[in-house]
Amino acid sequence: MTDKATKAAIHVHNLNYAYPDGTVALEQVSFEIQKGESIALVGPNGAGKSTLILHLNGILHSNKSRGAVKILGEPIDPKKVHKMPRKIGIVFQDPDDMLFMPLLFDDVAFGPINLGFAKTEVNRRVKESLERVGLAGYETRVSHHLSGGEKKRAAIATVLSMNPEIIAMDEPTANLDPKSRAELIEILKGLKNEGKTLIIITHDVNAIPELAERVIVLNKTVVADGTTREVFADTEMLLAAGLEVPTIMQFFEVLQAFGYPCDVLPLSLEDAVRNLTQTIENGSGHVHLHIHKHTHSEVNSSRNKHQHHR
Amino acid sequence: MTDKATKAAIHVHNLNYAYPDGTVALEQVSFEIQKGESIALVGPNGAGKSTLILHLNGILHSNKSRGAVKILGEPIDPKKVHKMPRKIGIVFQDPDDMLFMPLLFDDVAFGPINLGFAKTEVNRRVKESLERVGLAGYETRVSHHLSGGEKKRAAIATVLSMNPEIIAMDEPTANLDPKSRAELIEILKGLKNEGKTLIIITHDVNAIPELAERVIVLNKTVVADGTTREVFADTEMLLAAGLEVPTIMQFFEVLQAFGYPCDVLPLSLEDAVRNLTQTIENGSGHVHLHIHKHTHSEVNSSRNKHQHHR
Amino acid sequence: MVHISDGVLAEWLWGGGWAVTAIILAYALSKMKTEDVPRLSVITAAVFVSSLIHLSIGPTSVHFILNGFAGVMLGILAYPCIFVALVLQCFLFGHGGVTTIGINTVNMGVPALVAYLIFRAGTGLDIRPETKSVASLFGAIAGGVGVVLALLFLAVELITTGEEFIETTVLVMSTHVPIIAVEAIFTGVIVGFIATVEPELFGKK
Amino acid sequence: MISEIDRYASLSSPIHRWDPRFRLVSIFTLIFSVVLLYNLQLVIIGMIFAVILTCTSKIPFSFVLARMKLVFIFVIPFFIIIPFTIIGTGVEIASFSGITLSYRGIEYVLFAAMIVLKALTAVMLIFPMIGTSRMDITIKALEGLHLPNKLVQMFAFTYRYIFVLDDEFMRTDRALAARGFKKRGNMYTLTTVSKAIAMLFVKSYERADRVFYAMRSKGYTGTIATLHEFHARKQDWVNTAVVIGFALLLQVAATSDTFIATRGFI
Ligand SMILES: Nc1ncnc2c1ncn2[C@@H]1O[C@H](COP(=O)(O)OP(=O)(O)OP(=O)(O)O)[C@@H](O)[C@H]1O
Ligand SMILES: Nc1ncnc2c1ncn2[C@@H]1O[C@H](COP(=O)(O)OP(=O)(O)OP(=O)(O)O)[C@@H](O)[C@H]1O
Ligand SMILES: [Mg+2]
Ligand SMILES: [Mg+2]
Predict the structure, then answer these.
(1) Structural domain range at position A141
(2) Is the CB of B25 under 6 A from ligand 2?
């Protein structure tokens, strides 16, 4: 037990993968994720993010990948993919791919049934998972007819019902309206607080600070790996990888140029409000913004360094 | 000519639509868009946004919709959908639906050929449109081998090649990485500056201020319609419609509570930088942020009013 | 495998196959509206893709044939779909033969039409979530009949070609017995599914 | 993954340069001619010509053989079964529980060989026929040959959407596996896979609607017009004359007494 507890949730070492048509998707990918961590996996379109998470339960594999991925200390056996859902659950990008049963109940029950649970346990899990994502009472709805946001949550429920230790999600907030997005972020935060290990692929940089304490930047290989703050501090690398810094962080850089005293830039809006309150409180209730002789050039260079224009 | 010039680009009056299965998608929708305007069409998942733009060239229609939509002053004749592309081009949400020909060239040439242009003109338009979206030289690529971001831009090129006066786009930035998103926004800005009338469906509230000067909020019917600033000022309505205010605007509301003098809240980051510079310059090089006795309650109420939590 | 390769059958058989196919195809195409083209193509692609799925049952591996299902969903328009699917299967994978495309289309397509008639007679095409079980039942019958008839056609053709094919015919028939059951169950499930989820699809012809 | 027949369409060879309309008609005729032969020697001559055509097209033989492997699986039972009989007479080789298996003789072996060779030749000829231009050009050539427009459009769209749906199904397949599903030979597997395919169909219908909408909004009126034009040159006629001439020659030879037909054994 103590032994297992010390093992990494996910251990990837020198993972390579090329699609059958020759497209190289992953090159020498290595990283380790500890239990209970929540990680954002970011990178440009075509960086291999989706390809990578399909390796985490052995759905994708190749000769070159043998032994390259260990989940909870054990190397993946591609012949035992069907045994993996207890350990790791994957939420695909397009919920339509995950909802293939006539009724939502069947979809959410599908995993537990495959894992061999008794009927009462299956029912319990379905009920609990649907409640978890705010879809209690939707059991007899036709999955296909749910709205975009509901489908997304339903897809998560189909994974929660298997109660895996690790959950990997491919762009969970894509195509959602702001309300559904906010609700989804709450669901993810809840999972994080429960101690699940989370890997979240996302293009939504403004959501990252709320969700993940660590960011892995992938662009065929791992280009950066560190705390959210560390990664967002490296603007040059981010720009090269087609990424961006959260809006609020960019704005506070500008504020600094106006003399706002701030060592650690806030990453999210909530962070910013806290930072502002504290800075002003520490400044005995006052803070001075002013234009000094470098202000304009500092503002310009700060703005320029974040620009993506061709 | 002068007569036509005074006519609205799009005129929708009391449009109703229910899908054959009985789902009511649109109810008494009315609005008018002038030539050269750029409009963001927002609303929660399932609000009927996609349904609405399919009415703008007569693809979707019903008995109840007869005469409800006028494009450039003329009512739509559902029998003449094929004549519409000169007037209005629609970019669908899923680029796979728009790229149905074997080669990218054929897809981009499809519209102009149908419109009856000569071969040299078709070639010229294809070349120009592909350049426009940064895909010059992609003519002989096979659509199903393009990346997500490339497909999205290709879909736009297939519409640009018809050179319509009005362009409607369904979530053009969804699923794009930040760099591609920034590039796409530049493309859209270019179209706007060229004087095209634009309707952009989006869930990406932070992109709206850059793209649109007017916002229409749809939730089966038109819930709000006004300048971007007006619409974003009505937080209550937005919250009820599952929407959100841009991050920067939310943050400046907090700044106000700390005594930042600002009548018009900035909507985008660039806006904010300008606002800050000017305010400080007007304040003779200084601005004071401080905690007054209402600061904390103002900050709290400002934060709360934007919260979506269930 | 219900496809016949080149060089097996007597030429009057595969020649006749082309003739029959040309006639039915011409008729079906005249019934087909241009706006049906995208839908029929996507369905054809779906039939094509699903027939690539193999299930291992005991020692043999079977794959879906789906001619009965195509008939149930498309009626007479199933014929051009099956034709297009067979041509592409032949050209993309080398399944079946080139000269036998005509007769292979007859073998799959005519049973598809019979399957449709059975399904229509049984359900009156009144498909709603409430009538799901009736639809399923007749879907299963139609699916089974689609394969049985296709096999029967094949057997008759092989045996009329020459006595030396009797053993081959017996072998082909016996390996296909599980497919009849699989196809019947499959068509039943899928028809029931569509009746629950999107019953109006049955009316789209 | 669906492999692509036109992977080597970008090579350059006399066959690649041949106008696809002429190429289709010529090689199609040749296939029919070979299949109509009932003499082993002539079939072998036909096969040699097919090999020459394939080599001329520069399509790697490994690629061709990989496809022909599949054909073998289909036709090899004939080769194994036809020479033996359990009903007719012949040299008895085995007898168990009342069933006697007999060997029919060398004629039957040759007959089976002829069938297998014809099938293989036909499939081999598919490569120079359509593997030498991109699939879309081939489909356009069908239009140039005045096939019904609706049919040509069906080929074009079906071909495009095979890849989209194959991708879609692959994703569903992965989603099944990711939730602990393993294909076995049982009823549960069958019904589950059936439901997954049913979903593929339902989604396909919706996609079809959207594609049609997209086409309509790009001015589609029922015919797909493309810019591609074919221009026949002298060389195209020469190639055609050679291949069709050879096909006819085979038929003429078949009527001569030198090549005796073996049309089965009744
Ligand atoms: N089935 C496939 N066959 C061949 N190449 C593929 C396949 N799937 C993906 N690729 C290619 O592999 C690379 C990595 O793709 P992947 O989907 O993992 O990227 P991603 O990081 O998830 O991108 P996105 O942000 O757009 O989802 C891309 O170049 C892509 O085109
Ligand atoms: N083909 C259809 N048949 C029946 N109902 C449909 C169909 N297409 C859409 N609907 C329903 O009509 C309503 C409006 O759908 P629409 O796609 O226009 O919403 P939307 O505003 O574009 O949403 P999203 O932001 O998720 O794209 C929804 O309730 C949807 O479920
Ligand atoms: Mg991805
Ligand atoms: Mg929509």
Answers:
(1) 3-235
(2) yes
